[in-house]
Specification:
With 197 residues, this protein is mainly alpha-helical. It has a single domain, classed as Lysozyme, CATH 1.10.530. Helix content is 56%, strand content 0%. It is built from nine helices and no strands. Helix 3 crosses helix 4. The N terminus is likely disordered.
Amino acid sequence: MRRLVALALLAAPLGAAAGAQKYEPLAAAVAQRMSAALADRAPPVFSFARAEDAHRWVHEMSRRLRARIPDRKERIELLKTVQYEAVRAGLDPQLVLAVIEVESGFRKYAVSSAGARGYMQVMPFWVKLIGQPDHNLFRMRTNIRYGCLILRHYLDEEKGDLFRALGRYNGSLADPQYPTAVHAHWRGRWGYDGATS
């Protein structure tokens, strides 16, 4: 039964779950820490213990992403950015891919009815809270960096409870649909154990 629910969620229309992160005041120390993390502009590089692990992961994730992003160069840039920013934030890169799929369907210029923007559907108020006025949420790296930092923040606030953190990320804390959809995509479409299929 659980497998049928997961398959149904994977088949659900994408983008329908995109919500709106809720504005919540941040403690000064938290805002400062998040701002400092945003300001680090080191170029994204793959973070794998061995080069062959990077090659296998990129090959497999690129294959899965090909239908959404046909251009190989763009796919590799997205994967490199996701892997780098996710690892930096202490997140599983496949989880971040699932969030992007559910939030925007991998559409760089997606805008929700609430005004959330880009791949990870980041609300513009975050730029005022922790960013700089020139931060463009439609820029791939900026959007994914914000999204990863915000999800990490919610995970910390929720003491590691991914279900609640995802609900807060989407602005739908009381609704299990969004966290369930992300989890289904994470363990289904983006699940990866190191072996290629």
